[in-house]
Amino acid sequence: MNALTTGIAQRIGGWFAKPSEQVVAAEQAALRSDRFRLEREADWKRLDAILRRMEAGRTRALSDEDLLALPVLYRTAASSLAIARETSLDAALVAYLEALTQRAWFLVYGPRASLWSWFRGFLGGGWSASVRGMALEIWIALALMVAGTAVGWLLVASNPEWYYALVPGGLADERVPGATRAVLQRTLFGNQDQSGMSVFAASLFSNNAQVSILCFALGFAFGLPTMLLLIHNTGMLGALLWLYHGQGLLLDLVGWLAIHGTTELFAILLAGAAGIHVGRSMAFPGNLPVMDAAAAAGRRAAQVMTGVVLMLVVAALLEGFARQMVDSTPSRLIVGGFMLVAWSAYFFAFRRGSR
Amino acid sequence: MALALKLPFRRAPRGSDAARSQAWRADADKRRRMVISPEGVPVPFVLASRGARAAALFLDLLMIVGAMVGSTLILIWIASGIGIDVESSASPAHRAIQAMIIAWIVVMFLFRNAWFLFFELGPRGATPGKRICGIRVAARASGGNGGRLTTEAVIARNLVRDIELFMPLIFVISAGVEGSDTEMAGWAGLGWFMIFVLFPFFNRDRMRCGDMIAGTWVVEAPRKRLEHALSVGDAARGRSVETGAQYRFSDEDLAVYGEYELQVLERVLRENRAEGLRDVAQAICGKIGWSAGAGDERAFLEAYYAQLRARLETGMRFGKRKADKHSKPDKHGGKA
């Protein structure tokens, strides 16, 4: 009984309530498509206002109500668009709804993480997970680098003329076959007075930084240039090793290289692996279209490459300062070895939050 | 002849103007991609023109270089103001200053990369340069289905930018510093640069290498205001406000035009230029055999627009569409 009376009261209230402006306008419109538009216009305008605030970067200023309404309003706009296309010939209205839906889509399905929160996730597991994701390529790149070093050594050992072909002139000033032990030793020790800054700046944009970025970039020519680049550059390393070995300075050279080289060569290894990863996914895309396979591999490789850039900065710092300050082979080896162990542990033993 | 000499900048004749707008529309059609949203609604994306992208990049580089040079100069000015001599290497404070300079180099190195990342990950998906040019980054559709723009994708496309743009530059400069074969290096750098610059000209979706690797594309940022409804005013109901005249059109009067003409009429009404209104009103009167009056064109056209649209939309609901005036008149049309 009570329910009945309230029901009647509600209905009578519905009959005699003052109709809203919107409803009046809709009832007066002659065209059905205009009635459709006038009934929904308020929702679209609300969505428009929310989008404008969010696009201006004032998401925090939005009320919770508006934020919760966003996905609902987005779906309303999308379905309005579908209906308007079938029933309305108002071209401006359809264009407006298309733009509105697209803008809402960009925000509703936008990047989930800001740069900062992505970076935290990147350091806290994302990076090492990506590195582990391309384990096969890392082994390939490592094999190529070892092979390149061996080839460089053997070539120069068989004919010293090869040295000039492998090592570019600018890098090897006085380090040439036939140089005395004293000359070679001077290049390794006692450079404390050298300005750390110029060494740092030079090495940041040096040969190795270029090589590692190139390795990744050339990956999408199916990875072949990447492999050649790895072999060629480690060939240079092999030639240098041979040269110092001839004067019994092999261990000292290794120490001189290791202090920053373990970081730098690790970075080159990862960059090469990233390049091969992209190249391999394009050559053998599996069930995906080539473009999609390249995109999927490219995203993982990009994570690794961001890390490579950081590693190169660390390597440049080590080269510019640590090498000048630490002037004995054992301590250089310790620093280099420590870096190697630290990086390996970070990449392969640190598994928190891996996706 | 004399007029032509006096006024070299005359308005182009209407014909060529129309042809140009036709060509522009054809280009816009070629750049249009229909992408299905996750809700199943096709939404059109318009790929950004290569010119807009080049301009956006130029603006961004200008801002980055400006910020870097400006902030460095300010720091130097502050340093000299406090009385720090960067040149003298004997002072004990020298090492500390050196460390600070290096930190600054690293910051600048990261700043260039972070600029693109930070802005493209924001809600607008565009750097300030792109925003000025009205374009943004979006996830490329695979198989017609739109995806989500991920953080990794944005990072990938910007890492490759380094290789496309900055590497050849550094390559040439470092070759110049080392003094070996500058000319050769110059040509190699140029060749490299050209390969990447011309890349967007050789694929359908105008992607550069970074877009290809990351699975993104650059599209025009949608921005449209909701125009007022043309068919709800007094005039649309056939009654002219100015003259009080009633415009009623018979079925035959309305049957001559289709959807294309309706949209042209809509555009003319929205532009609301007197000469345009007059021309179109005369054309319609000629076509339907009314005698064209003057002074009340807008009311006449609004009435014709509303009634033509009512007729075509009724047809639409019954599955009969008339694309333009050339398409065959539907036998049963109008009676429904």
Characteristics:
heterodimer, A: 355 residues, mainly alpha, 2 domains, B: 336 residues, two-stranded antiparallel ribbon, disordered N terminus
Polypeptide structure, described:
The complex is a heterodimer of chains A (355) and B (336). With 355 residues, chain A is mainly alpha-helical. Chain A has two domains: 90 residues; 235 residues, no CATH class. Chain A is built from 15 helices and no strands. Chain A starts with a helix and ends in a 6-residue tail after the last helix. Chain B is mainly alpha-helical and 336 residues long. Chain B has two domains: 151 residues, no CATH class; 88 residues, no CATH class. Chain B has a two-stranded antiparallel ribbon. Chain B has a two-stranded antiparallel sheet with strand order 3-4. In chain B, helix 4 packs across helix 6 and helix 11 crosses helix 12. The longest helix of chain B is centred in the first third of the chain and has 33 residues. The radius of gyration of chain B is 30 Å and the shape is elongated. At the A-B interface, helix 3, helix 4, helix 5, helix 10 and helix 11 of A face strand 2, helix 4, helix 6, helix 8 and helix 10 of B.
Total helical segments of chain A: 15
Chain-averaged pLDDT of chain B: 78
Shape of chain A: elongated
Low-confidence stretches of chain B: 1-15, 331-336
Structural category of chain A: mainly alpha
Radius of gyration of chain A: 32 Å
Domain module count of chain A? 2
**What is the number of helical segments of chain B per DSSP (H or I, 4+ residues)?**
12
State the largest interface: A-B, 85 and 80 residues
Number of strand segments of chain B? 4
Query: Quaternary status of these chains?
Result: heterodimer
SSE map:
The complex is a heterodimer of chains A (355) and B (336).
Chain A: H1 2-16, H2 21-28, H3 32-55, H4 64-87, H5 91-108, H6 115-133, H7 135-158, H8 162-166, H9 181-188, H10 196-204, H11 207-217, H12 224-246, H13 250-283, H14 290-325, H15 329-349
Helix pairs in contact in A: 2-3, 3-4, 3-5, 4-5, 6-14, 7-12, 7-13, 10-14, 11-12, 11-13, 11-14, 12-13, 13-14, 13-15
Chain B: H1 2-6, H2 14-30, E1 32-36, E2 42-46, H3 50-82, H4 94-120, H5 128-133, E3 135-139, H6 151-178, H7 182-197, H8 209-214, E4 216-220, H9 251-255, H10 259-271, H11 274-288, H12 297-317
Antiparallel strand pairs in B: 1-2, 3-4
